[in-house]
Design goal:
About 50% of the residues lie in helices and about 15% in strands. Bound molecules: nicotinamide-adenine-dinucleotide. The site of nicotinamide-adenine-dinucleotide has 26 residues, from helix 1, strand 2 and helix 6.
Protein backbone atom coordinates (compact mmCIF):
# COMPACT_ATOMS: atom_id res chain seq x y z
CA UNK A 1 0.00 0.00 0.00
CA UNK A 2 2.93 2.36 0.64
CA UNK A 3 4.95 1.20 -2.34
CA UNK A 4 5.62 3.94 -4.87
CA UNK A 5 4.57 6.81 -2.61
CA UNK A 6 6.93 9.78 -2.33
CA UNK A 7 8.31 11.09 0.96
CA UNK A 8 10.47 13.96 2.13
CA UNK A 9 12.44 13.57 5.37
CA UNK A 10 14.11 16.79 6.55
CA UNK A 11 17.53 16.56 8.25
CA UNK A 12 18.07 12.99 7.11
CA UNK A 13 21.75 12.48 6.39
CA UNK A 14 22.40 11.16 9.89
CA UNK A 15 20.82 9.85 13.08
CA UNK A 16 17.06 9.55 13.36
CA UNK A 17 16.32 11.14 9.97
CA UNK A 18 18.50 8.61 8.16
CA UNK A 19 16.89 5.79 10.18
CA UNK A 20 13.47 7.02 9.03
CA UNK A 21 14.60 7.33 5.40
CA UNK A 22 15.95 3.76 5.50
CA UNK A 23 12.77 2.23 6.95
CA UNK A 24 10.52 4.16 4.52
CA UNK A 25 12.71 3.08 1.58
CA UNK A 26 12.54 -0.50 2.89
CA UNK A 27 8.73 -0.18 2.67
CA UNK A 28 9.10 0.73 -1.02
CA UNK A 29 8.64 4.48 -0.60
CA UNK A 30 10.69 6.87 -2.76
CA UNK A 31 12.61 9.19 -0.47
CA UNK A 32 13.91 12.74 -0.67
CA UNK A 33 16.67 13.13 1.89
CA UNK A 34 17.96 16.49 3.09
CA UNK A 35 20.63 18.44 4.91
CA UNK A 36 22.31 21.76 4.17
CA UNK A 37 25.84 20.50 3.50
CA UNK A 38 25.53 19.37 -0.16
CA UNK A 39 28.59 17.10 0.07
CA UNK A 40 29.59 14.14 -2.09
CA UNK A 41 28.76 11.88 0.90
CA UNK A 42 25.23 13.32 1.09
CA UNK A 43 24.54 12.43 -2.55
CA UNK A 44 26.15 9.01 -2.07
CA UNK A 45 23.79 8.28 0.84
CA UNK A 46 20.86 8.78 -1.54
CA UNK A 47 22.47 6.59 -4.21
CA UNK A 48 23.11 3.86 -1.61
CA UNK A 49 19.46 3.93 -0.46
CA UNK A 50 18.27 3.67 -4.08
CA UNK A 51 20.53 0.71 -4.70
CA UNK A 52 19.82 -1.14 -1.44
CA UNK A 53 16.03 -0.82 -1.54
CA UNK A 54 15.26 -0.40 -5.26
CA UNK A 55 13.45 2.92 -4.80
CA UNK A 56 14.05 6.44 -6.08
CA UNK A 57 16.19 8.32 -3.56
CA UNK A 58 17.40 11.88 -4.15
CA UNK A 59 19.41 14.25 -1.96
CA UNK A 60 18.16 17.85 -1.67
CA UNK A 61 20.31 20.54 -0.10
CA UNK A 62 18.14 23.05 1.82
CA UNK A 63 18.81 25.00 5.00
CA UNK A 64 15.78 24.47 7.22
CA UNK A 65 16.52 27.69 9.12
CA UNK A 66 15.38 29.62 6.01
CA UNK A 67 11.67 29.78 5.12
CA UNK A 68 12.33 30.07 1.37
CA UNK A 69 14.59 26.97 1.47
CA UNK A 70 11.81 24.97 3.20
CA UNK A 71 9.39 25.95 0.44
CA UNK A 72 11.90 25.19 -2.29
CA UNK A 73 12.69 21.74 -0.77
CA UNK A 74 9.05 20.69 -1.16
CA UNK A 75 8.81 22.20 -4.65
CA UNK A 76 12.03 20.58 -5.88
CA UNK A 77 11.18 17.20 -4.38
CA UNK A 78 7.74 17.34 -6.04
CA UNK A 79 9.39 18.11 -9.37
CA UNK A 80 12.03 15.35 -9.12
CA UNK A 81 10.18 12.57 -7.23
CA UNK A 82 6.53 13.32 -8.08
CA UNK A 83 3.62 14.31 -5.79
CA UNK A 84 4.67 14.23 -2.13
CA UNK A 85 2.18 12.41 0.10
CA UNK A 86 4.48 11.81 3.13
CA UNK A 87 6.27 14.64 4.91
CA UNK A 88 8.53 13.88 7.86
CA UNK A 89 9.77 16.98 9.68
CA UNK A 90 12.85 15.75 11.51
CA UNK A 91 15.60 18.43 11.26
CA UNK A 92 16.51 19.75 14.67
CA UNK A 93 19.32 21.23 16.73
CA UNK A 94 19.97 21.61 20.47
CA UNK A 95 21.68 24.22 22.65
CA UNK A 96 21.93 24.12 26.43
CA UNK A 97 22.35 27.21 28.69
CA UNK A 98 20.61 28.90 31.63
CA UNK A 99 17.80 31.14 30.39
CA UNK A 100 19.51 34.37 31.52
CA UNK A 101 22.64 33.39 29.58
CA UNK A 102 20.87 31.89 26.55
CA UNK A 103 22.26 33.57 23.38
CA UNK A 104 19.32 35.15 21.50
CA UNK A 105 20.74 34.00 18.16
CA UNK A 106 20.70 30.37 19.42
CA UNK A 107 17.07 30.84 20.51
CA UNK A 108 16.22 32.16 17.03
CA UNK A 109 18.06 29.30 15.29
CA UNK A 110 16.29 26.64 17.39
CA UNK A 111 12.90 28.25 16.75
CA UNK A 112 13.63 28.49 13.01
CA UNK A 113 14.93 24.93 12.50
CA UNK A 114 12.95 22.97 15.12
CA UNK A 115 9.60 24.78 14.86
CA UNK A 116 9.14 27.27 12.00
CA UNK A 117 10.51 24.88 9.34
CA UNK A 118 7.70 22.48 10.28
CA UNK A 119 5.18 25.21 9.42
CA UNK A 120 6.87 26.16 6.14
CA UNK A 121 7.24 22.64 4.75
CA UNK A 122 3.73 21.71 5.90
CA UNK A 123 2.03 24.77 4.37
CA UNK A 124 3.82 24.04 1.08
CA UNK A 125 3.10 20.30 1.02
CA UNK A 126 -0.56 20.32 2.12
CA UNK A 127 -2.12 21.53 -1.17
CA UNK A 128 -0.50 18.57 -3.00
CA UNK A 129 -1.78 16.12 -0.36
CA UNK A 130 -5.28 17.61 -0.63
CA UNK A 131 -5.14 17.12 -4.41
CA UNK A 132 -4.08 13.48 -3.93
CA UNK A 133 -6.77 12.90 -1.28
CA UNK A 134 -4.21 11.17 0.96
CA UNK A 135 -1.36 12.35 3.13
CA UNK A 136 0.77 11.72 6.18
CA UNK A 137 2.58 14.46 8.09
CA UNK A 138 4.86 13.19 10.84
CA UNK A 139 6.72 15.65 13.05
CA UNK A 140 9.65 14.45 15.13
CA UNK A 141 9.15 16.23 18.43
CA UNK A 142 10.69 14.82 21.64
CA UNK A 143 9.93 13.76 25.20
CA UNK A 144 10.84 17.43 25.63
CA UNK A 145 7.67 18.23 23.66
CA UNK A 146 5.67 16.89 26.62
CA UNK A 147 7.91 17.56 29.62
CA UNK A 148 10.85 19.82 30.46
CA UNK A 149 14.47 19.84 31.61
CA UNK A 150 16.40 22.82 32.91
CA UNK A 151 18.72 24.76 30.58
CA UNK A 152 16.87 23.64 27.46
CA UNK A 153 14.31 26.49 27.32
CA UNK A 154 14.46 27.02 23.55
CA UNK A 155 14.41 23.31 22.68
CA UNK A 156 11.57 22.56 25.11
CA UNK A 157 9.55 25.56 23.86
CA UNK A 158 10.08 24.58 20.21
CA UNK A 159 9.26 20.89 20.75
CA UNK A 160 6.09 21.77 22.75
CA UNK A 161 5.26 24.08 19.83
CA UNK A 162 5.62 21.18 17.39
CA UNK A 163 3.10 19.13 19.40
CA UNK A 164 0.60 22.04 19.43
CA UNK A 165 1.07 22.66 15.71
CA UNK A 166 0.56 18.95 15.02
CA UNK A 167 -2.79 18.90 16.85
CA UNK A 168 -4.05 22.02 15.08
CA UNK A 169 -3.10 20.78 11.59
CA UNK A 170 -4.61 17.34 12.36
CA UNK A 171 -7.96 18.97 13.14
CA UNK A 172 -7.86 21.10 9.99
CA UNK A 173 -7.18 18.10 7.75
CA UNK A 174 -9.22 15.49 9.62
CA UNK A 175 -11.82 15.03 6.88
CA UNK A 176 -9.34 14.96 4.02
CA UNK A 177 -7.62 11.64 4.59
CA UNK A 178 -4.49 13.43 5.76
CA UNK A 179 -3.18 12.61 9.23
CA UNK A 180 -0.70 14.68 11.24
CA UNK A 181 1.10 13.16 14.22
CA UNK A 182 4.14 13.81 16.36
CA UNK A 183 6.67 11.21 17.46
CA UNK A 184 8.20 12.04 20.86
CA UNK A 185 11.43 10.07 21.38
CA UNK A 186 13.32 9.94 24.65
CA UNK A 187 17.02 9.19 24.21
CA UNK A 188 17.83 7.57 20.89
CA UNK A 189 21.18 6.00 20.06
CA UNK A 190 22.60 8.14 17.25
CA UNK A 191 26.22 8.70 16.20
CA UNK A 192 26.12 11.97 18.17
CA UNK A 193 25.08 10.18 21.38
CA UNK A 194 27.57 7.34 20.78
CA UNK A 195 30.35 9.95 20.48
CA UNK A 196 29.53 11.36 23.94
CA UNK A 197 30.02 8.03 25.75
CA UNK A 198 33.87 7.99 26.04
CA UNK A 199 33.92 11.52 27.49
CA UNK A 200 31.12 10.72 29.96
CA UNK A 201 33.03 7.59 31.02
CA UNK A 202 36.09 9.73 31.74
CA UNK A 203 34.16 12.50 33.53
CA UNK A 204 32.29 10.09 35.81
CA UNK A 205 35.02 7.47 36.06
CA UNK A 206 32.54 4.75 35.13
CA UNK A 207 32.51 1.89 32.63
CA UNK A 208 30.39 2.10 29.49
CA UNK A 209 27.38 0.19 30.85
CA UNK A 210 27.28 2.17 34.13
CA UNK A 211 27.58 5.56 32.47
CA UNK A 212 24.74 4.65 30.09
CA UNK A 213 22.46 3.36 32.89
CA UNK A 214 23.22 5.81 35.67
CA UNK A 215 24.05 9.03 33.81
CA UNK A 216 22.78 9.10 30.23
CA UNK A 217 19.58 7.14 30.78
CA UNK A 218 18.88 8.26 34.35
CA UNK A 219 15.44 9.56 33.28
CA UNK A 220 14.55 6.69 30.90
CA UNK A 221 12.97 3.92 33.03
CA UNK A 222 13.82 1.06 30.64
CA UNK A 223 17.48 2.19 30.82
CA UNK A 224 17.73 1.46 27.14
CA UNK A 225 18.12 3.79 24.17
CA UNK A 226 15.53 3.65 21.42
CA UNK A 227 17.15 2.88 18.07
CA UNK A 228 16.90 4.89 14.86
CA UNK A 229 15.47 1.75 13.22
CA UNK A 230 12.65 1.63 15.80
CA UNK A 231 11.80 5.30 15.18
CA UNK A 232 11.85 4.61 11.43
CA UNK A 233 9.49 1.64 11.82
CA UNK A 234 7.10 3.76 13.95
CA UNK A 235 7.04 6.42 11.24
CA UNK A 236 6.36 3.71 8.63
CA UNK A 237 3.51 2.44 10.85
CA UNK A 238 2.03 5.96 11.04
CA UNK A 239 2.07 5.99 7.23
CA UNK A 240 0.17 2.67 7.05
CA UNK A 241 -3.55 2.06 6.66
CA UNK A 242 -3.63 0.65 10.22
CA UNK A 243 -2.83 4.16 11.46
CA UNK A 244 -5.51 5.96 9.40
CA UNK A 245 -7.46 6.88 12.54
CA UNK A 246 -4.43 8.06 14.50
CA UNK A 247 -4.21 11.82 14.09
CA UNK A 248 -3.24 14.76 16.28
CA UNK A 249 -1.36 12.41 18.59
CA UNK A 250 2.01 12.84 20.27
CA UNK A 251 3.35 9.27 20.27
CA UNK A 252 5.89 8.71 23.05
CA UNK A 253 8.86 6.42 22.32
CA UNK A 254 10.72 7.15 25.54
CA UNK A 255 11.06 3.94 27.56
CA UNK A 256 8.51 5.25 30.08
CA UNK A 257 10.10 8.68 30.69
CA UNK A 258 6.84 10.67 30.42
CA UNK A 259 4.96 8.11 32.57
CA UNK A 260 7.05 9.12 35.58
P1 LIG B 1 21.43 14.58 14.20
O1 LIG B 1 22.24 15.79 14.57
O2 LIG B 1 22.10 13.26 14.06
O3 LIG B 1 20.64 14.85 12.87
C1 LIG B 1 20.08 16.09 12.60
C2 LIG B 1 19.91 16.20 11.12
O4 LIG B 1 19.39 17.50 10.85
C3 LIG B 1 21.22 16.07 10.33
O5 LIG B 1 20.96 15.35 9.13
C4 LIG B 1 21.58 17.52 10.02
O6 LIG B 1 22.31 17.65 8.82
C5 LIG B 1 20.19 18.11 9.89
N1 LIG B 1 20.14 19.54 10.09
C6 LIG B 1 20.57 20.27 11.14
N2 LIG B 1 20.38 21.58 10.90
C7 LIG B 1 19.81 21.65 9.67
C8 LIG B 1 19.40 22.72 8.85
N3 LIG B 1 19.55 24.01 9.23
N4 LIG B 1 18.86 22.44 7.64
C9 LIG B 1 18.74 21.16 7.21
N5 LIG B 1 19.13 20.11 7.95
C10 LIG B 1 19.66 20.36 9.16
O7 LIG B 1 20.25 14.56 15.28
P2 LIG B 1 19.22 13.41 15.71
O8 LIG B 1 19.56 13.04 17.11
O9 LIG B 1 19.09 12.36 14.68
O10 LIG B 1 17.89 14.28 15.79
C11 LIG B 1 16.88 14.29 14.78
C12 LIG B 1 15.60 14.87 15.35
O11 LIG B 1 15.16 14.06 16.44
C13 LIG B 1 15.75 16.29 15.93
O12 LIG B 1 14.59 17.04 15.64
C14 LIG B 1 15.88 16.04 17.42
O13 LIG B 1 15.47 17.15 18.16
C15 LIG B 1 14.96 14.85 17.59
N6 LIG B 1 15.21 14.04 18.79
C16 LIG B 1 16.41 13.41 18.99
C17 LIG B 1 16.60 12.62 20.13
C18 LIG B 1 17.88 11.84 20.38
O14 LIG B 1 18.03 11.27 21.47
N7 LIG B 1 18.81 11.75 19.45
C19 LIG B 1 15.56 12.52 21.08
C20 LIG B 1 14.37 13.20 20.85
C21 LIG B 1 14.20 13.96 19.69
Amino acid sequence: MLQGKNAIITGSTSGIGLGIARQLAKAGINVGINSFTDSKEDHKLADDLAQEFGVKAIYFSADMSKPEACVSLVEQATEKLGPISILVNNAGIQFVAPVDEFPPQKWDAIMAINLSSVFHTTRTAVPGMKALGWGRIINISSAHGLTASPYKSAYVAAKHGVVGFTKSVALELAEQNITCNAVCPGYVMTPLVEAQIPEQMKTHNMDRETVIREVMLARQPTREFATTEQIGDIVAFLCSEAAAQITGTPLSVDGGWTAL
